[in-house]
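for the recovery benchmark. tokens below, seq after
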């Protein structure tokens, strides 16, 4: 969509499954009117009611229509990571990030909520409900994958935005990744109220930090792979152009042909006739 890769879900079964899940399941949940089952407040959901299953369900999907669309577009664009890593490695990283952030985000928010309880104007009763409400959605996972996208995926083209005549602002240069960053910005500020927006920002920050730690191998887990998993389409191979893992088809009949050549960016297609 925003990168010069072949369109569709060729050799990306994990990305295809995630996009379908993020678009279909929220509709079913909305029709069933059970969105409340995916919200999370440490108190009372965990400490008083003992609903510990919410720890691993609040990141399953977005329930807001706009955020659901943005999340699906981001996962679709991140499919290039699956092509470079291979399906097994890509899914393994997602599971590691999912488990860690599902525990780390509500734990940090509860510590923050407890600290704020001592400030004037806040309820200091330990049995009072948590101030932060975690809105459903894998925001932390998206930001962790954004770290890999930022470091691994090269910039394809750049463009400049010129200010209006007489403006004091200078020309600003952007890359093709700008469109992904705009979607990420919208996902980070999700929530019906201030408490949800702050919780979403904290979730984004923790996901970004964990993504950096995993990418730099500052914490263990980068070498872990899902056992007995056969993606049935792609595997990782060495790629000298990127310095990372790329994929190739396990089937000789799926070698690239002229129809598999990635499409050029729209700007390149428009200006191609005017080039010497």
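predicted aa per position
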């Amino acid at each position: 969509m925003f990168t010069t890769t072949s369109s569709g879900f060729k050799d990306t079964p994990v990305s295809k499954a995630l996009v379908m899940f993020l678009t279909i399941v929220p509709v079913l949940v909305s029709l069933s009117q059970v969105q409340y089952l995916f919200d999370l407040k440490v108190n009372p959901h965990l400490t008083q009611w003992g609903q510990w299953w919410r720890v691993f369900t609040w990141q399953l999907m977005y329930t807001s229509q706009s955020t659901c669309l943005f999340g699906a577009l981001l996962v679709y664009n991140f499919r290039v990571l699956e092509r470079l890593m291979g399906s097994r490695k890509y899914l393994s990283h997602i599971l590691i990030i999912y488990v860690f952030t599902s525990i780390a985000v509500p734990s940090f928010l509860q510590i923050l909520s407890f600290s704020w309880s001592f400030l004037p104007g806040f309820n200091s009763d330990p049995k009072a409900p948590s101030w932060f409400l975690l809105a459903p959605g894998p925001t932390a996972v998206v930001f962790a994958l954004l770290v890999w996208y930022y470091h691994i995926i090269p910039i394809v083209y750049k463009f400049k935005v010129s200010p209006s005549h007489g403006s004091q602002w200078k020309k600003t240069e952007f890359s093709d990744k700008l469109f992904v960053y705009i979607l990420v910005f919208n996902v980070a500020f999700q929530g019906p109220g201030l408490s949800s927006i702050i919780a979403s920002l904290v979730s984004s920050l923790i996901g970004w930090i964990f993504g950096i730690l995993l990418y730099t191998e500052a914490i263990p887990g980068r070498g872990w792979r899902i056992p007995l998993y056969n993606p049935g389409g792609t595997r990782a191979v060495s790629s000298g152009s990127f310095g990372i893992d790329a994929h190739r088809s396990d089937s000789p009949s799926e070698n690239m042909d002229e129809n598999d050549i990635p499409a050029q960016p729209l700007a390149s297609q428009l200006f191609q006739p005017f080039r010497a």
